[in-house]
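In this supplementary section we document a worked example of the pipeline. Step one takes a protein sequence of length 406 as its only input; no multiple sequence alignment statistics are reported here. Step two produces a three-dimensional model, which step three serialises into structure tokens for compact storage. The input and output of this example are shown verbatim.
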Amino acid sequence: MPTDGLPQPASSPEWFTADGCSPDDFAAQIAAAKAAQRVEFARAVVHGIPLYDCRTLRGTLDDALAKAALLTEWSAVLRDGAGVLVLQHAYEDTAPIDAATACFEAIIADERAGGGAGGDHFAKAGANDRIWNALEKLCLREPATFVRYYANRFVAAAADAWLGPHWQMTSQVNVVRPGGAAQQAHRDYHLGFQSAAEAARYPAHVHRMSPFLTLQGALAHCDMPVESGPTKLLPGSQRYAPGYLAWRRDDFRAYFEAHCVQLPLAKGDALFFNPALFHAAGANRTQHIARMANLLQISSAYGRAMESVDRVQMCEAIYPVLAEHRERASLDAAQLDAAIACCAEGYPFPTNLDRDPPLDGLAPPSQQMLLQQALAGAWSHQQFVAALHRQQWRRSSGELREQLLS
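The serialised model returned by step three reads:
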């Protein structure tokens, strides 16, 4: 069992540690992915990544048995094979892409004019143009464009293949301008957005489970030759279970840079990958291409609690009690932490990343962190309630419609 929330040494199979990660085991899993992959529907396999021509697969989606076979193949590729696949011509008619691009460019201009400069997860703030919550902003600003854009059977089929039904779509638009630097190799949400110390607190089975909660995707809004910096990918790297702790290590990042691949994309192509895949946006070495992609983050229906709980009101109610126990030392730190964990939200997502960006790390502060900060600083109840409501306002999106339509 973990002590003080930290795992046992690397010899324990139930807990992963950064020191216990092995580049040799990592390389072995990548090699195993190449041997495991079998594809029938792909047009080609380039750098180990299967490419599917959606123009020839439209009939496949109309046949229940053929569709099941196709989605089974995609799931196996994402889980055991390359961990990434490309759907070429997912938008054979790119008019919806162009319409959405125009809307996104208008949103970027408006947000720049308003002084917005949100943080980014794996790149320096301001290095890219980023639209947080692009899904809702497109829907509210141009609902007709939204419907045409997301009425795409291949995007829906990819989500079904990995997550099953009832998934939830979110998206963030990213524009990397000429001269934009590459990202560092990383993994994605959920565990990829935790610090190394926080990720190490989760048992090994959670590391293995995390990738099955999310599907990552990117819709190309322009032609992306390799020199424009399309995503660098390391096929097979999703198979390495301790990878959420390994990706920050210099030796693993060096391995990634030595073995990663890039594929050019055309406007209307879609790329989907397992969130545990080691990847990084490439450097834009062109003089004229502003590389725009709509980054899809599609979540499993099973990532939500059964009941709705007003944790803001609960935090307000227990803060004076916690403060009194802390002052009198009538409960020790572990007991206070246990009570806080049952009351306050410990996870910083979902949030409104426009107002609550990850400026000081991979994620903004959680409700639990605010409560612990207030107790440590001996804030008054009034100070804490004011800070709690400011945090809740940053996390909410209730004013978004009025902002967009004003």
